[in-house]
Amino acid sequence: MRYGHTPLEGLPDRVRICEVGPRDGLQNESTVLPVEVKAEFVARLVDAGHTIIETTSFVHPKWVPQLADAEALLTAIRPAAGVRYPVLVPNERGLDRALDLGVRDIAVFGSATETFARRNLNRTVDESLQMFAPVVARAREAGLSVRGYLSMCFGDPWEGEVPVARVTEIAARMMALGCTELSIGDTIGVATPGRVVALLDALSAAGIAVSQIAVHFHDTYGQALTNTLAALRRGVTTVDASAGGLGGCPYAGSATGNLATEDLLWQLEGLGIATGVDLQKMVEVSRWMARQLGRPSPSRTVIALAGRQQEGERR
User: Fold this and answer.
1) Tell me: the pLDDT tens digits for 192-247?
2) How high is the pLDDT of residue 60?
């Protein structure tokens, strides 16, 4: 059942969803899924209408064992026309592996804080940017798109509130390397709308076009949808989300799940904003994945629509 839609002024007509479930979602799960299940997950996401699916990571398996099968997964996937399958690469070795497999879209993962940079990359912020520089340069020379993730943009569990000026500085340095897109991450989910707007305004003032910015919110305090709406009002049109709300961050214990794709779709459909992704199919995908993981989906929309479907089946 649908309840119609009512647009609000100042919002885009269309939003691109970057589906991060296969990488950012599964990397924080204790269950290590077979590569065949992961490949089916990606195929189901394509069938639901996704055109950007962050697929895996070439991080050393010692640090993220859930994604140790990156090569096998990319080999198992049958690329669909018009669909991008970006992968995360931490260094030049990771880029070499990606290029050997014909990857056309990559991402690098930076931090706005020193503590998280050391915990996540075993480097200072400056050292991590130095590591990314040849990766981005070589990728761009090869014609690849490069997304730059910037984590801890609003708060850090060890350092507390992160100043807007600090985030803006590191963001500008990442874009200066040659990144084609910047995803600003609320890694521990502490952002609220005013801070989102303040950061987006500061990034724009620093010369980073809003068309190059994506938002990546975690729902730790139930603010992910509210923060997304604030970002859309400021012109953002790319939103990261994860099927069923999968994910978190293995290096930040207070980081709970990502914004659930289905919750985002419910809001966007209610606002009359097009995405090209089918909500009911996504509910089915997330219910299927929940069975693979042996636990229910945390997405409120998945729970509500699945419950309604079960009631209809009993009638």
Assistant:
1) 999 999 999 999 999 999 999 999 999 999 999 999 999 999 999 999 999 999 98
2) 83
Domains, in order of start, for the chain: 16-314 (3.20.20.70)
Determine the residue type at 51.
Answer: T
Q: Tell me how far apart the terminal alpha carbons of the chain are, to the nearest angstrom.
A: 16
CB 139 within 8 A of CB 106: yes
Residues serving a catalytic function are 249
- 217: burial class by Cβ within 10 Å (0-12, 13-18, 19+)? buried
Residue 189 and residue 179 in contact, taking contact as beta carbons nearer than 8 Å? no
- The phi and psi torsions of 177 (rounded to 5 degrees) equal -70, -25
Contact 117, 125 (CB under 8 A): yes
With a cut of 50, say whether residue 251 has pLDDT above it: no
Q: Are strands 145-151 and 213-217 parallel, antiparallel or unpaired?
A: unpaired
Using a cut of 0.70, tell me whether the model's pTM lies above it: yes
User: What is the C-alpha separation between 144 and 133, in angstroms, rounded?
Assistant: 14
